[in-house]
Amino acid sequence: MKKPIILFVRGEQLYAGMEPEITELMTEGFMTVDSGAMELSYEETELTGMKGTTTRFLIEEDMVVLERTGMIQSRMEFRSGERSSSLYETPWGTMVVDITTTKLSQRLTERGGLMEICFTIAVNHQITGENRFKIRVREAAR
Length: 142
Prior knowledge:
globular; ten-stranded antiparallel barrel
């Protein structure tokens, strides 16, 4: 079942010796629940610098996959305590991205909830910093 939702996305990028870079976004999207798996999706805007990109979070019990399609192409897998690698394709070039998930928690139901992902990121095998996503989801008013 696909239903409209409101997502509140807070992203933090932490680099050594610098102030954290924080972005916050409130957007409309969709939630689909099927056989115990959940998908959250929304369209990126000029505000995020990724207009023309669809972002999807595929959520299972112990894993979250972040997929972007359109102007940006990427697939990142998050499992607590594990490392994964993927390609991050932009109109300006392609990078190898290594993700090490330090925290993954989600308390999401069909009515909404909260998901948090903390991870380090390495671009072309060089650690660039720590990232955090906090995503609150609620049903859209009908």
